[in-house]
Design brief:
The structure holds 2 protein chains of 2 kinds. Chain A is mainly β. Chain A has helices at about 20-35, 50-55, 65-70; strands spanning about 80-90, 95-105, 110-120, 125-135, 140-155, 155-170, 175-185, 200-210, 215-225, 230-235, 240-250, 255-260, 265-275, 280-290. Chain A starts with 18 loop residues before the first helix and ends in a 6-residue tail after the last strand. The chains are: A mainly beta, B mainly beta. The interface of A and B includes residues 140, 166, 168, 180 and 202 of A.
Chain lengths: ~300, ~700
């Protein structure tokens, strides 16, 4: 069996030259990532490079990825939007996480659909999301997210579970917004695969539009039996089309940086995160209008 | 001048009335907010039900702004001294209030305070009282009947089938708590009430020690509008004198976000409306008035539950070491101890008012028909032993413009003393300061005392408290306090002289009438024995508990209010890993246009490493109930409270709550044990009033 080229610092830890051992490593790395408190089981985490750029702040962001991050934010989108997001965790293509999201504004509410995929052939997870949100008043929106999550673990088979998420968005003043999102409050689990715990978490975030160009974002996250996470991100519009953002998170410490290009026909975000120990993760996302311009 | 004022008032009324109608919250919600700001955190719900009953009484029987006294306003603890002075001065200067909205012409009152105040005051609310005799009061009184049932869906160990081995160790009654209340009231002048309670596990029967409900409380309270007798109370009542140092069975202020709420109010006799089975007196109390003189005599005789034990000596004497405060009589053993000691208390108080100065004297005797005996541990050396206790007190209150000074000196018959003295200064419309010094001797002993203090036992404490409230501008307020204290003698789990310090800082932001946010930081430093130490003798170490809270409250619309909170608690002890507790919750309250239906719900997620990092958060409940659950372990708590006005006189409340833990397989221990990781509570209450 051919030796695998493996350009990472993990290579030095692996005196391996067999495909089975390589798969073994990838398998256990995937499992370890399930317990990584920052990206606890990525399919249950956040989507969009804009979020990644801002230190992981996601709950206050309004784009198609709100299907994943906080369905209540969908009510801010006036037109159809579709998004494609990809990240290579620690630059390992085998630890790839992808998302496709689309939102559909309808007269009295907004709907969205999303798919998350994470892993490789020996271990992978998919999450299918249907989101519905409604603008209850000028200031306040609420949304619900219905999920079906499937975990495939090689010879152990597959297990699927229904999950829910609930989101709120509150426009406190013209410049200040707060959002709340709770995922899996009933603490559902994949019963067939006892080792796979599905996280239950709540996020509370604030977004302050400091001026026309600068926005500051802060988010608090608490997942059950996980450390408390604080995220902070600043976005800066260099011009009407270009901008950049940076942020950090604690528990564990992560630094992020990214930039974006916006036009009426597309939005591209590129971001990277540096984990203290595990290294660099590149992220990219694309947003396109389905029928009209991006608003 | 009066015309201008009237025109101004009319304009205010037109605009504010509309606003007030639109955004008015329920009384329960307002009381919950106020109480949470006052109590900060709780170790017990009992005291707070009393506090809630007190506020509810004022909400249902509003104080008349044209007759309200300084001390009555003091009982609305969210008012500062300057604000009280401003209300009284305004009335003296401009005559009677025409409407509650006239409060808005008083500079010292901000929008928030007026909003809270509007729930407890009115104009000419009981105008007829002065002209009404007792018989007419009876005829025109309001009547209220309340029935409450509360149960858990998971069976606790104590309710499981009894076998011969456990026959003496099980609960006698069903797993349901029931309360019945009746109240008749006429403003502040007349109150007659009865309350009966059976806790979960207690039997509802008619046997030797069980007479229907396990606990009964009744009162008759009458405040004649005129005459020599100012107040008369029969049955269960509370006494609150001076700064609560010599004797006070009422509500005591503690350190909280209302930093100026340190001084005691002076309503000496108060009817007892709560269900705490200890914190009241039973008998008669009367206050007389004559010109500037007030005198109160009170007597109480009631059985109390203690851990009465036989001595080892040949005389078979009995003694007790502590009073059982829980009020629970569920097992044969608990029932056997019920009401096993008789407590008798008699007291006399006299107060003189000269212009701005009030001076009072107090003498109290307490007797028990059994002796209290303390253990041999060094920290118990100065605790009360014997069967009678006498103490005397002298208190004062002095008001001069925006300066208020207050204090109390108390002396035991054993020669031990205690004193407390403080002052509140309103330096400016935007700045209030408070300072308080207290010094309680290590051998000072009391029966009922509730002064401002760090420790509940009112002894062995010396401390200095200083706080401020600073209105930075219309949108920003800054409150804070620091309290430094020390104990010169030992305490439980503190084997040496110790010190401590509490600091609180709160920044309050109100960008609009609909939105309130605050960030609060609190740090408590206290010395305790170092646990698990390897030395021969214990030594003290500092434990530091820090609390960070960010809270947002938004009135989204006429009908919908949202609250969000994140709270982080850290606990650090030298040589041990820092413990952390986090709580995130989201509340939503909605009511319909006619206010016949309302629903309040919460979803809270918590992750707490250890008991020392526990988090508290007050939650909405059915009327007359107040709960501050403690969040420990990890999990999710949800609740829904529904209120339905079925008919004009009939209200129904239903509360469903569930806590599901992720990291425990059993909840509680002993007879309270639940096998499982979830606990579901159902509470139903009905109220009929006419």
């Amino acid at each position: 069996m051919a030796k695998i080229e493996f350009n990472s610092y993990f290579e030095t830890c692996l005196p391996l030259d067999t495909h089975e051992m390589y798969n073994y490593f990838i398998f256990w790395t995937g499992i370890l990532c399930l317990f990584n408190p920052v990206h606890a089981q990525q399919i249950y985490g956040t989507s969009g490079a804009e979020s990644a750029m801002l230190g992981g702040v996601s709950v206050v962001l309004s784009n198609a990825y709100a299907v994943v991050n906080n369905p209540a934010q969908l009510t801010s989108l006036k037109n159809w939007q579709a998004g494609l997001y990809n990240e290579n965790r620690f630059n390992q293509k085998e630890l790839q996480y992808s998302n496709f999201s689309i939102n559909v504004p309808i007269k009295y509410f907004s709907a969205g659909f999303g798919i998350n995929y994470y892993g490789f052939d020996q271990f992978n997870q998919q999450r299918y999301m249907l989101a519905l949100a409604s603008k209850i008043s000028q200031q306040f929106s609420a949304g619900i997210q219905l999920n079906y999550a499937v975990t495939q673990m090689g010879e152990y088979g597959a297990a699927g579970t229904w999950l829910i998420g609930l989101g709120l968005k509150l426009q406190i003043t013209t410049k200040l917004q707060s959002s709340f999102f709770v995922f899996n409050p009933n603490q559902a689990n994949q019963k067939r695969l006892n080792s796979i715990n599905i996280p239950t978490y709540a996020r509370l975030g604030f977004k302050h539009q400091v001026n026309k160009k600068v926005n500051a974002n802060v988010e608090f996250e608490q997942a059950i039996e996980q450390p408390f996470i604080l995220r902070f991100g600043i976005g800066y519009d260099l011009s009407q089309s270009f901008g950049l953002g940076t942020g950090f998170a604690v528990n564990p410490v992560i630094y992020s940086f990214g930039f974006y290009y916006k036009s009426l026909r597309t939005q591209v975000h590129l971001a990277s995160q540096i984990h203290q120990i595990l290294g660099f993760t590149p992220m990219a996302s694309l947003l396109v209008p389905v029928n009209k311009e991006l608003k | 001048m009066m015309n201008k004022l009237f025109a101004l008032l009319l304009a205010f009324s037109l605009t504010i009335n509309t606003y007030a109608q639109l955004l008015r919250e329920s009384v329960e919600s307002i009381i919950e907010t106020l109480m949470e700001r006052r109590i900060e955190q709780s170790e017990s719900n009992l005291d707070y039900n009393d506090l809630q009953a007190h506020l509810l009484h004022y909400a249902e029987n509003k104080l008349d702004l044209n007759k309200v006294t300084h001390s009555e306003l003091q009982q609305l603890f969210f008012l500062s001294e300057l604000q009280i002075q401003a209300i009284i001065s305004h009335r003296n200067l401009y005559g009677n209030f025409l409407s509650v909205y006239e409060l808005q012409t008083i500079n010292a009152l901000d929008e928030n305070t007026i909003y809270f105040l509007s729930y407890f005051v009115a104009v000419d609310e009981d105008w007829q009282a002065n002209q009404t005799n007792l018989l007419a009061m009876f005829k025109e009184s309001n009547h209220e009947f309340i029935w409450l049932a509360d149960t858990e869906l998971q069976q606790r160990k104590g309710y499981k089938a009894v076998d011969s081995l456990t026959a003496s160790n099980h609960y006698l009654g069903r797993q349901i708590r029931q309360v019945f209340r009746y109240r008749m009231s006429f403003g502040q002048h007349l109150s007659i009430g009865y309350s009966g309670e059976k806790d979960a596990g207690e039997a509802f029967a008619f046997q030797s020690k069980i007479k229907g409900f396990d606990f009964h409380s009744a009162h008759v309270f009458y405040q004649p509008p005129k005459g020599l007798i100012k107040v008369i109370a029969l049955g269960d009542y509370q006494i609150n004198i001076g700064q609560g140092l010599t004797f006070s069975s009422g509500i005591g202020a503690r350190k909280g976000a209302l930093v100026l709420d340190v001084r005691r109010s002076n309503q000496v006799i108060r009817p007892y409306r709560s269900l705490n089975e200890n914190e009241f007196l039973r008998g008669t109390a009367v206050t007389f008035r004559y010109k500037n003189f007030n005198g109160t005599a009170f007597g109480s005789r009631k059985p109390i539950t203690t851990n009465l034990t036989l001595t080892d000596n040949a005389d078979n004497d009995t003694y007790f070491t502590s009073i059982t405060a829980s009020g629970l009589h569920r097992t044969p053993a608990e029932l056997k101890r019920k009401n096993n000691v008789l407590q008798t208390i008699a007291g006399l108080q006299m107060a003189f008012q000269f212009n701005k100065i009030e001076i009072g004297l107090l003498r109290v005797h307490a007797f028990y028909n059994q002796s209290i005996k303390q253990g041999d541990a060094p920290y118990q050396k100065y605790q009360f032993s014997g069967n009678q206790l006498q103490h005397s007190g002298l208190y004062y209150n002095y008001q001069w413009r925006n300066f208020n000074s207050f204090g109390e000196f108390s002396l035991n018959d054993n020669g031990a003393y205690a004193f407390t003295a403080g002052c509140v200064i309103a330096l400016d419309v935007s700045l209030d300061l408070i300072c308080l010094y207290r010094n309680f001797a290590k051998n000072y002993q009391t029966t009922f005392a509730n002064p401002f203090a760090e420790f509940a036992d009112v002894k062995n404490e010396q401390g200095y408290y200083s706080g401020f409230m600073f209105k930075l501008n219309r949108k920003w307020n800054w409150n804070g306090y620091i309290d430094i204290y020390q104990s010169k003698w030992l305490r439980y789990l503190v084997d040496g002289p110790s010190y401590g310090m509490d600091v609180l800082q709160e920044l309050h932001f109100q960008p609009s009438k609909k939105t309130q946010m605050y960030f609060r930081f609190k740090r408590e430093i206290r010395q305790r024995n170092q646990p698990d130490n390897l030395t021969v003798s214990d030594y003290l170490n500092e434990q530091i508990r820090s609390n960070y809270r960010l809270h947002l409250q938004q009135k989204v619309s006429i009908l919908l209010t949202l609250k969000s909170r994140i709270e982080l608690v850290t606990f650090a002890l030298e040589g041990n890993k820092q413990q952390t507790g986090v709580l995130i919750f989201q509340d939503a309250s909605w009511r319909n246009q006619t206010n016949k239906f309302s629903i309040t719900s919460r979803l809270a997620l918590f992750n707490v490493d250890d008991y020392n990092a526990r988090v508290y958060a007050a939650e909405n409940d059915v009327l007359h109930q107040f709960s501050v659950p403690m969040y420990q372990y990890s999990g999710v708590r949800m609740y829904v409270v529904v209120r339905l006005k079925l008919r004009r006189n009939l209200d129904v409340w239903l509360k469903l709550s569930e806590t599901k833990y992720s990291n425990v397989n059993t909840i509680s221990s002993g007879l309270e044990l639940i096998n499982g990781n979830r606990i579901t509570d159902v509470r139903l209450q009905m109220r009929y009033n006419f």
